[in-house]
Amino acid sequence: ARQLPAIQAGAPFVSLSRILGMATLQDIRRQLAEWGRVMVRQFADGDVREGVEILRRQGLIHIGPTPEATSQQLLSEWAKETDLKNVLILVGTHEEVNWLNREAQRIRKEAGLLGTSSCVIGEREFHPGDRVIFGRNDRKLGVKNGTFGTLIRQQHGSAVIQLDQSNKCVFVPLNNEHVRLGYAVTTHKSQGATTQ
Q: Which of 50, 77, 103, 195, CA to CA, is 20 to 30 A from 111?
């Protein structure tokens, strides 16, 4: 007796596409510059080395002598940015996220870019002007996991956070455990985010 081949994930779609045909996306619209579109094509085609080389030529990749020196250089460049809605630090681990978020907050506080008062949400300390990210969907607040915003102030037992996408303000209870600093995120968490 002849055994049927195993069906892999997506195999039914491959078979259907052979019979019915399929549509494919060809245009890259997110990257505005031509070099960005070429870079995305390189990564999509599996040519990571060339994709990274394009980023290096654009001055977007810097390699330092140690991870600590590289992180300090990253923070130094990041601190020059003025519109933090369009800048996001991407790293690989939660440990790096936590450290870079604390350092970014310290830099902004020392530069006088954050309010002098503080607000504790969950067990984390924030200041007016801090960038934040929500770590869980919350229907009552109208936010999704990965929503970014800026802490405006503490008011009547809540933190007032202005959301990036709608500019709407939400009142977040101070016992909310799912609000974190949002200067740095893991590459996984950044999926779907659009920055410049």
A: 195
| Structure confidence by residue, pLDDT tens digits, 110-148 | 999 999 999 999 999 999 999 999 999 999 999 999 999
Q: Is 186 exposed, middle or buried (0-12, 13-18, 19+ CB in 10 A)?
A: middle
Reported as a single tens digit per residue, the pLDDT across 150-175 is 999 999 899 999 999 888 999 999 99
Max Cα separation, the chain? 78
* Distance of alpha carbon 159 from alpha carbon 151, whole angstroms: 7
Please work out, in degrees rounded to the nearest 5, the angle formed at the alpha carbon of residue 40 by the alpha carbons of 67 and 182. 50
Tally Cβ neighbours within 10 Å of residue 141. Answer: 20
184-186 and 89-91 beta bridge pairing: parallel
Cα–chain-centroid distance for residue 51?
Answer: 20
Query: 143 - beta bridge partners?
Result: 138
